[in-house]
Amino acid sequence: MIDVEGNRLRYVADGAVSTDRTRSLPDRLVQLFEGVAAVIARFTPDEAAVEETFVNKNPSSTLKLGQARGIVLLVPAQAGLVVGEYSPNLIKKTVVGGGLAGKAQVQMMVKTLLPGYTFSGADAADALAVAICHAHHRETARRVAVGSGAAGSRAAGSGAGNRGAARGAKRVGR
C-alpha cells in the first residue's frame, strides 16, 4: 500500500493474503476473496493495480492462477475501484529502468523509492513495485488528460505469483 501526492510516494503497508493449502480450490478462492475485500475495507484505496498473468509450464497451475487473478480483479472492481493491469516487464522498466531487471534490483529500487519500507519479502516488494508502476502511469495519464498536475489518489493492487496468492496491496495517495 502506498500513498501518492503529486510525484511523491509514501510507503503505507504491505502484506499477503494467504489461503489454506489443505482446503479445496473453491474454499481457497473464497478465502482469497475475503482477504482482498478486508484489505480494501481496511485501507480504503482509490485505485488498484494487478500484475498481468504469465504462462507457467504447468497448465493446471496456469488455470488456478487465472482463477485467483479473477478474484483479485473482481474484488476491487466490485468496490468501484479503477483496476490497472501491468506486464512484469513494464513494472520492472518503470521501477528500475529496464524490463529485464532481476528481483534484487527491483527490491533495491522499491526500498529507495519508498523511504521507511523495510524488506519483508520478495512478494511484498513485487506488489509494491506494481503500486509504484500504477502510480507513475496513472499520474502521467491524468496529467495528459487534465493538461496540468493532478491531485493525488489512493490505490490498492496486487501481483499474483505462480502460487496464485494475492501479494500485498498498495494505495496510490489521497
Structure description:
This is Crossover junction endodeoxyribonuclease RuvC. It is found in: Cytoplasm. Its cofactor is Mg(2+). The protein is α+β, with helices and mostly antiparallel strands. It contains five helices and seven strands. Strand 1 (2-5) and strand 2 (8-11) form a beta hairpin. The longest helix is centred in the last third of the chain and has 25 residues, at 122-146.
Number of H- or I-type helical stretches: 5
CATH homology-level superfamily: Ribonuclease H-like superfamily/Ribonuclease H
Give the CA-CA distance, first to last residue.
12 Å
What is the radius of gyration? 15 Å
Q: Provide mean pLDDT, rounded.
A: 85
Tell me what portion of residues adopts beta-strand conformation. 5-15%
Number of domains: 1
Strand order of the largest sheet: 2-1-5
- Uncertain runs are 160-174
Overall CATH class: Alpha Beta
Structural class: alpha+beta
Shape: globular
CATH topology call: Nucleotidyltransferase, domain 5
In CATH terms, what is the architecture? Answer: 2-Layer Sandwich
Q: Please provide the ordered H/E string of secondary-structure elements.
A: EEHEHEHHHEEE
Question: How can the largest sheet be summarized?
Answer: 3 strands, antiparallel
The amount of helix comes to: 40-55%
Question: How many strands?
Answer: 7
Please describe the topology of this protein:
Layout (H helix, E strand, L loop, with lengths): L1 E4 L2 E4 L13 H19 L3 E5 L7 H20 L3 E5 L1 H8 L7 H11 L8 H25 L6 E3 L3 E2 L5 E2 L7
Parallel strand pairs: 3-4
Antiparallel strand pairs: 1-2, 1-5, 6-7
Helix pairs in contact: 1-2, 3-5, 4-5
